[in-house]
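Fill in residues.
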């Protein structure tokens, strides 16, 4: 089958948001971009999507080490994770929170409008309702070690990136869940590789998936973002290692505006770079 991707050009830098504290995550909601900073107050900076002007700052109380942010258009809110909890934040700044009971490395929202937390230390994906009720826990296959991020597709399959320093395999997998049992059906990657080798990763940390299920992969230590087909075949580098100053750790795709938001961090600084795709 031949796949057609509407987001097929090499990414061009459109804008770079101001440098500041390290960025734990970025997401878009309606006409705004939400940037999550590692600090005690005003952790969420909200920018407009047209001129990228700062609109307001929001504070999430009781935060202890931020890990990710994602958004849900249906519920008109963003979700934020720290090292042990998750928070739902409305556009007006109202917050509710709940315990994850494991370290949530990253977040995503599925077609049922539930929020998924990927927990690498226990190799699980935990699904919560919008108000924090635990709906299910999926244990990932044994060879999916150190999972960083999971996204559920419309047909119920999961796309997962995994691999950290010292792991034998760094790759992107497509996984099918039958009840609470999971099994890999496709993968891309293998042994970790630093440099320009195509088809290999060095800590693939975060994913974005478009409406046609093309997959964007933030490859942290190779300083690039790779585009894969719906069957996880290599297409091209969307962001090359010449574009980020430091390393892409989190990404967010605005499908409607054809914008890819990429976090770019080196301690103690961080920023978000906006690419046209």
């Amino acid at each position: 089958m031949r796949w057609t991707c509407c987001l097929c050009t090499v990414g061009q830098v459109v804008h770079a948001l101001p440098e500041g504290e390290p960025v734990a995550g970025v997401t878009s909601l309606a006409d705004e971009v939400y940037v999550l900073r590692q600090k005690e107050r005003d952790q969420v900076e909200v920018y407009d999507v047209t001129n990228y002007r700062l609109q307001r700052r929001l504070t999430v109380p009781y935060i202890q080490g931020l890990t990710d942010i994602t958004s849900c258009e249906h519920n008109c809110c963003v979700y934020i994770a720290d090292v042990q909890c998750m928070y739902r934040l409305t556009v007006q700044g109202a917050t509710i929170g709940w315990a994850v009971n494991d370290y949530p490395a990253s977040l995503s929202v599925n077609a049922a409008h539930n929020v998924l937390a990927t927990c690498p230390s226990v190799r699980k994906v935990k699904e919560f309702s919008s108000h924090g009720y635990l709906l299910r826990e999926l244990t990932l296959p044994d060879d999916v070690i150190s999972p960083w991020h999971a996204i559920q597709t419309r047909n119920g399959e999961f796309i997962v990136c995994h691999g950290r320093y010292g792991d034998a395999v760094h790759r992107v997998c497509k996984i099918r869940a039958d009840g609470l049992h999971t099994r890999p059906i496709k993968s891309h990657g293998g042994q970790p590789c630093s440099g320009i080798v195509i088809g290999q990763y060095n800590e693939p940390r975060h994913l974005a998936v478009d409406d046609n299920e093309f997959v964007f992969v933030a490859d942290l230590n190779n300083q690039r973002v790779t585009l894969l087909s719906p069957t996880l075949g290599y297409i091209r580098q969307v962001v090359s290692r010449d574009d980020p100053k430091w390393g892409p750790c989190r990404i967010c795709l605005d499908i409607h505006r054809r914008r890819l938001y990429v976090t770019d961090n080196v301690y103690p600084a961080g920023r978000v770079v906006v690419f046209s795709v």
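The CA atoms of residues 55 and 116 lie 28 Å apart.
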